[in-house]
Amino acid sequence: MKSTFLIAAFAAATAGLLLPATASAESKKPNVLVILADDLGYGETSIQGNPQIPTPHIDSIGKSGVRFTSGYVSGPYCSPTRAGLFTGRYQQRFGHEFNPGPAQTAGQAVGLPVEEKTIGDRFKEAGYTTGWFGKSHLGYEPQFHPLKRGFDEFYGFLGGAHDYLDAKADGKNPILKGTEQVDSVEYTTESFAKEAVSFIDKNKKKPWFVYLPFNAVHGPLQATEKYLARFANIEDQKRRTFAAQLSAMDDAIGTVLEKIRANGQEENTLIFFFADNGGPTRQTTSQNGPLRGFKAQTWEGGIRVAWLAQWKGRIPAGQVDDRPVIQLDILPTALAAAGVEAKPEWKLDGVNLLPYITGEKKEAPHEALYWRFGPQIAIRKGAWKLVKGTNPESQPLERRGAASVEGAELYNLEKDIGETNNLAASEPEKLKELAAAWERWNSELVAPKWIPGNAGKKQGAGGGKKRPAAQTQAQSN
Q1: Which residue, 299, 326, 357, sits at the end of a domain?
Q2: Is 96 an active-site residue?
Q3: Residue 95 φ then ψ, to 5°
Q4: Which of these is catalytic: 57, 96, 137, 366?
Q5: Where's the Sulfatase N-terminal domain (predicted)?
Q6: Omega of the bond leading into 217 within 30 degrees of 0 (cis)
Q7: Active-site option among 78, 96, 145, 218
Q8: Domain range for residue 433?
Q9: Beta pairing class for 409-412 and 180-181
Q10: To the nearest whole percent, how much of the chain has pLDDT over 90?
Q11: pTM attached to this predicted model
Q12: Annotated catalytic residue 137
């Protein structure tokens, strides 16, 4: 498809819709909304099976479109996942393997490399107005600011976490509107949604791209009485506050979805919802359902997340798809919807999911998915997963040492989603196959550009065993 109009017409035809002959390509460009939850466990939303905390608005995205039950992220914690989302590339290819750390210790070169084009850049080039409302965690220095990374508007904070009620709680990581500090905030979850709604409303006559990364449900655990009152039956205060935070985020997402409906744009808006990693159960009670492990681990509980997509009239409603997908796919999928063909020189790892969602392609979108996080590794190929994670009981989580396949474990996820039955000894050929595939991928990577606890010092390049040892870092950074 070499023109925007032909791509839009093809998408409409797959849904049984025909565009008027007089329709302009510009007017038919779909809006794109990417919603990102922070530290939300795989098993927490009601569409994922949690009866304790109703999430009707989040659920509606999956019910009106597709829910990927094997949806993944390329990093087991915050910043690397976001770097992968923004580039459509494994973040280890350009050295963004770890979080930047707090503003007080992060160096000037620590952030999403400026050489990498972002999803904001891509959509600006496609004629879109772009807005970013919420958390960044992709660098503190001016060159990493959202307004320098392809976005027309920004309201949020640059760090990894923030107080929900006090805009001035962290002087090194303030809430910003553009580049100006915000002095007060009601409740960040509501504020981010309010800013997104305002942006969507004032740009309703032109195509827009909105990135809405909530800090919910990341710590600190804070909620207002309005939301706490909904869960008076939960006796554990930590769990009650977490439930209130999730319910508040669901409400906030609902206000954004309602504005899109009110503007008559629901059938011209592609929506994604996912989480940046699994839940840090001990810190916030965020639960990962049947999965082993949690945030900052390459077990399923750290990298497998709720993953939903909706485009009414284009994506058939009510689909449940178990084919593995990853957040790297969001950029090429959204660009394809906008009529932009990914170029080979972009070297994307993500793929356009639209032909898979519409049924044009029946096979899996990826032959394999890969992870490297310090000494932790993983590869999923079909039903099989090779993994070397950390000891779930280790505190803080261990990140020292070079990554290798030595001592990795093998699981069949179709039969053993909880990774309880290690088949490495009984399936030596499958073990060898996955290990070799991971080694090939690892040989293409570079060393981390920084290491936690040593963020200001640039590291040397190199893949595999040439990489420097990773250090320990608090999960909140």
Answers
A1: 357
A2: no
A3: 85, 10
A4: 137
A5: 30-340
A6: yes
A7: 78
A8: 369-466
A9: unpaired
A10: 84
A11: 0.91
A12: yes
